[in-house]
Amino acid sequence: MTRTSDTKTIDQFLAENPNVDVSHAWERCWGILSGIKERIAGRFPELEAEPNCADRAYYTSPNGEFEGSMQAWSGPGCDWLVNSWLGNRKASILDMNATAFLDQQTDVPHFVMVFGTIPKLFFYFDFTPRRNLMTDTDYLDRYYGAINDDYLALRGNPMFQWSVSHGTYMRALTNPSTQSLTAELNEANITVLEDYAYRMLEHWQGWLDCANPVPESQRTALRDYDFRVRELGYARDPMNKLAEQVFGADQVQTMLDIRMGREQMQRRLGSTDA
Length: 274
What we know:
The chain has helices at about 10-15, 25-45, 135-145, 150-155, 170, 185-210, 215-235, 240-245, 250-260, 260-270, and strands spanning about 50, 60, 65-75, 80-90, 95-100, 110-115, 120-130, 160, 180-185. By secondary structure, the protein is α+β, with helices and mostly antiparallel strands.
């Protein structure tokens, strides 16, 4: 059966072009994501680096095939800020991200941004909702209506094609802000995505400026929901199987626990603060 490119797996893309040097794309995309992270961190001055990431500023797989960096911060206003990458810059595959999961002072959507190479350019963006969009239409209009024109402009750009996750949970996460796209790996397409990234960041920071506080009585339930979505989004990502081939299942589970911030969530659950 012929598989259309929007449902190709990462393994299939890599099998077609397994040994492409994507070092320049790493420099460009990692620079964009690091800039996004710095802007977010600047908004939350009390963030502290996570201790269990101290030895992961740069690391490699046991066989040296993969390399990466995993850094995270947490503090008032932002439960979990992550800036990480993993892959092989000489062999087509990169996964790079900047992600911010807010605490429960507000219900502004979380911020998730991923650049990758397979070796085509891959881009994922999401304002993860914290209310039920099917019933809370005020929340839907406030946050997703505001970006609808930008969303449709990128979604309709003929240089980009939708990429479908084979994971049912990952598809369940999709919402009116979700972009999951592939394109030819070139400077022009990266520039389009860089512009989109910073426009989404401006929207998000503006929402934080205007956000009303979540009532204290609702914060525990929101925290529990946030933590569950954060955990499952990492744990059920089909990309984990690719990492298991290089690191082994046990090491990947450790990496996932660090990446999702399991220790940070346990600290919050053990505290008296919602």
